[in-house]
Amino acid sequence: MAVLQLPAGITWTYRVSVEPPVWQDAVLVYRTVQQGDALVVHTEFRHAKGEMKFQLGTFQRGHPSHANMRFPGFFMHPAYFHDKLQVNQKLAWEWPWQLPGGGIKSGRIKRYEGLVADLVPDPVPGFFGRAVRIEAQLSYIEDGRVQATARETLWYSAKAGQLIKVVREGRTPDEGSSRIVAELVEYPSAGR
Question: Closest Cα partner for 163 from 115, 123, 110?
Fold first, then answer.
């Protein structure tokens, strides 16, 4: 099976809510940009009190840029998918879990393990038709011991080529929120 590819020059916009509500009116905007042989993802995080822009990383399975990802990194998950997701298919990958100063230490990883649970009606009505629902766990591991976990439910649309909804629950070392929800609200090819 082939690995999923995204086109360059596309923008995806997600509405984000967090608990506790440290951000109001939060939006994540992702843009794909071709830079040489690499497809790079630029991100804007806007909320009621300001905004920040950053390069999220390279949309490629196992790319070293994935080591610095926190929750906005969910956009990179499809880089680890194959083109045909099937119900009961297991998904797993891992990447380094950065130290607070940005370094990498052997034996310190984030491990992602999921299962394609089912096909569901459109979780974002009017956008994409059916979606694949994935139930997953993200584990923060250091020297073979799990330090923290978060549960994620993902909805992936092949039509959008991306996740259309993400729900993360659980406290992790690199996030202050216990629940984060991101829902795709704008995509140019969605037929809106």
Answer: 123
Cα separation, 48 vs 98, in Å, equals 29
Task: Tell whether pTM > 0.85.
Answer: yes
Contact 138, 156 (CB under 8 A): no
In a 10 Å sphere around its CB, with 0-12 CB exposed, 13-18 middle and 19+ buried, how is residue 102 labelled? Answer: exposed
Residue 51 belongs to a domain with what CATH number? 2.40.360
Domain annotation covers residue 161: yes
DSSP designation for 4: P
Q: Is residue 90 one of the residues assigned to a domain?
A: yes
Identify the H or E element spanning 129: none
Domain extent at residue 94: 11-186
Tell me: the pLDDT tens digits for 41-93? 999 999 999 999 999 999 999 999 998 888 889 999 999 998 789 999 999 99
